[in-house]
């Protein structure tokens, strides 16, 4: 008998070790050895090290609080229309950048502090839990393997090479359908939003009555919605066109208009602005007569119609585009061209 056989015979049938495991036996030479001896961290045996870790965790949480204060202060410090250049991103909103950085730092410091706290100060004593074996019995494994082999043999996948190859080709080409779905994202925003149906000489048509508007039709303090001449609800692309060209008209006292360009582009205090919110494109429909503010009902972006449609509250990124208007020789309000800037939400190429 070999020495190896002698050594296996000397193994006991079963013996528990001091750490809760099971020592190797003749029947199970790879038994669970149990947990290794617990190693204490430096913070467990040195109170000064524990205090240092405590200060680090507290410092991270304090930095998070300061970042939150910075997040709140950013609303006061940066106007919504301030643009800064950041390499390598390019031109970005100073407000959005500051809000993102401060909020990101606040959340990161909370997470980092919690992790450092757990790894250095919380208890790390291992607690074993007995669990049953989850592996299948040899009989079940043999039955599953035999079933798989029978299925592969009966399918003739190995012998029917034409079927196999065409199946592989079909499965490989199915993901290409996802590329086709990208077409539904539509054209680039710059192409789609920069031009509307408004053009020089097109009259302003009341959306409700479908009649051309005269200056006397616009009362002080009223809100009127208009669309460009020649646009009809019978057109196949009416919804797409009105979504860009929708116009709101308000009559103000000329002395209340603060922006010089707005005053020059108006007619006797009648101003025309895009109805499409510059946040996500919702239609603006709420007008406050006393303040001359318009409010988007979706996310409460608020614009001042006496100051060039400037954003004074909410997530919108830029002012409402204004349409330059005048009166033709027949006494009807008409546009003097298209909007000077793209309508609707901001996008990367807007500039």
TrEMBL record:
It comes from the Bacteria. This is Cytochrome bc1 complex Rieske iron-sulfur subunit. PANTHER family: CYTOCHROME B-C1 COMPLEX SUBUNIT RIESKE, MITOCHONDRIAL (PTHR10134). GO terms for molecular function: 2 iron, 2 sulfur cluster binding; metal ion binding; monooxygenase activity; oxidoreductase activity, acting on paired donors, with incorporation or reduction of molecular oxygen. It is a multi-pass membrane protein. SUPFAM superfamilies: ISP domain. The keyword Transport applies. Iron-sulfur subunit of the cytochrome bc1 complex, an essential component of the respiratory electron transport chain required for ATP synthesis. The bc1 complex catalyzes the oxidation of menaquinol and the reduction of cytochrome c in the respiratory chain. The bc1 complex operates through a Q-cycle mechanism that couples electron transfer to generation of the proton gradient that drives ATP synthesis. It comes from Streptomyces buecherae. The cytochrome bc1 complex is composed of a cytochrome b (QcrB), the Rieske iron-sulfur protein (QcrA) and a diheme cytochrome c (QcrC) subunit. The keyword Transport applies. Its cofactor is [2Fe-2S] cluster.
């Amino acid at each position: 008998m070999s020495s190896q056989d002698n050594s296996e015979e000397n193994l006991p049938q079963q013996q528990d070790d001091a750490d809760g495991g099971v020592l190797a036996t003749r029947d199970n030479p790879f038994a669970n050895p149990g947990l290794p001896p617990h190693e204490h961290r430096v913070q467990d045996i040195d109170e000064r090290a524990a205090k240092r870790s405590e200060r680090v965790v507290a410092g991270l949480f304090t930095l998070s609080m300061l970042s939150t204060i910075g997040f709140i202060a950013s609303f006061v410090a940066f106007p919504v229309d301030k643009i800064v250049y950041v390499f390598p991103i390019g031109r970005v909103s100073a407000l959005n950048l500051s809000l993102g950085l401060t909020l990101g730092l606040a959340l990161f410091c909370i997470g980092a502090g919690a992790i450092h706290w757990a790894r250095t100060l919380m208890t790390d004593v291992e607690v074993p839990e007995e669990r049953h074996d989850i592996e299948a019995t040899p009989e079940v494994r043999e039955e599953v393997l035999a079933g798989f082999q029978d299925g592969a043999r009966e399918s003739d996948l190995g012998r029917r090479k034409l079927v196999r190859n065409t199946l592989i080709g079909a499965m490989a080409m199915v993901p290409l359908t996802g590329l086709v779905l990208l077409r539904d994202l539509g054209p680039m925003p710059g192409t789609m939003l920069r031009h509307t149906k408004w053009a020089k000489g097109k009259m302003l048509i009341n959306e409700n009555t479908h009649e051309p508007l005269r200056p006397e039709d616009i009362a002080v303090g009223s809100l009127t919605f208009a669309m460009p001449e020649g646009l009809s609800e019978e057109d196949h692309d009416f919804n797409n066109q009105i979504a860009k060209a929708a116009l709101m008209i308000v009559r103000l006292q000329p002395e209340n208009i603060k922006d010089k360009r707005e005053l020059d582009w108006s007619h006797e205090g009648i101003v025309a602005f895009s109805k499409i919110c510059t946040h996500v494109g919702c239609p603006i429909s709420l007008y406050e007569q006393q303040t001359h503010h318009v409010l988007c009902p979706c996310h409460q972006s608020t614009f001042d119609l006496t100051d060039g449609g400037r954003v004074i509250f909410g997530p919108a990124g830029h002012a409402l585009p204004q349409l330059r208007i005048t009166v033709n020789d027949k006494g009807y309000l008409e546009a003097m061209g298209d909007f000077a800037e793209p309508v609707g939400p901001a996008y990367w190429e807007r500039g």
